[in-house]
Design goal:
It is a single chain. The protein contains 2 helices and 7 strands. By secondary structure, the chain is mainly β. The chain has a domain of 83 residues. The strands form 2 sheets. It has a 5-stranded antiparallel β-sheet. A two-stranded antiparallel ribbon has the order 6-7. The two termini are 16 Å apart.
């Protein structure tokens, strides 16, 4: 779920993942280790929900690496506004984090929460 503050638009979305193997740094650059996609929008778009690896067909998306959630990887999703490229949203999670979600829960702030708690969390961040 992409939820910018107020009525702000989103001008780019970036989904990425890297391995979390203890023997390898999850932040070591390398095309063979990274996976995900990014897209820019002009004009911007509003918020909303979308499948992680199935952005709308009308978006111009640049994919890289695997396009599915895999165990042993740490994922990030972020989006930014048109105002000086300030990030309004960023979340980190693993496949295990998502597998532990109950129906109606979302992952934000490094924990599972209800949609109501998410709205309150987001309001506090904005």
């Amino acid at each position: 779920m992409l939820a910018p503050c107020g009525r702000n638009d989103i001008t780019s979305v970036h989904v990425s993942s890297r391995p979390t193997d203890p023997g390898r740094s999850p932040y070591t650059p390398g095309a063979e280790q990274e996976s995900g996609w990014w897209s820019d929008f002009d004009p911007g778009i509003g918020g909303g929900s979308l499948p992680l690896f199935a952005p709308p067909g009308s978006w111009s998306v640049q994919p890289h690496g695997e396009q599915r959630i895999l165990p042993g990887r740490r994922y990030s999703v972020d989006f930014c506004s048109p105002e000086d490229g300030v990030y309004y949203g960023e979340v980190y999670f693993t496949a295990e984090d998502l597998a532990g979600l109950e129906p109606g829960e979302v992952w934000a702030g490094d924990r599972a929460m209800t949609r109501k708690e998410f709205r309150e969390y987001r309001a506090g961040k904005c």
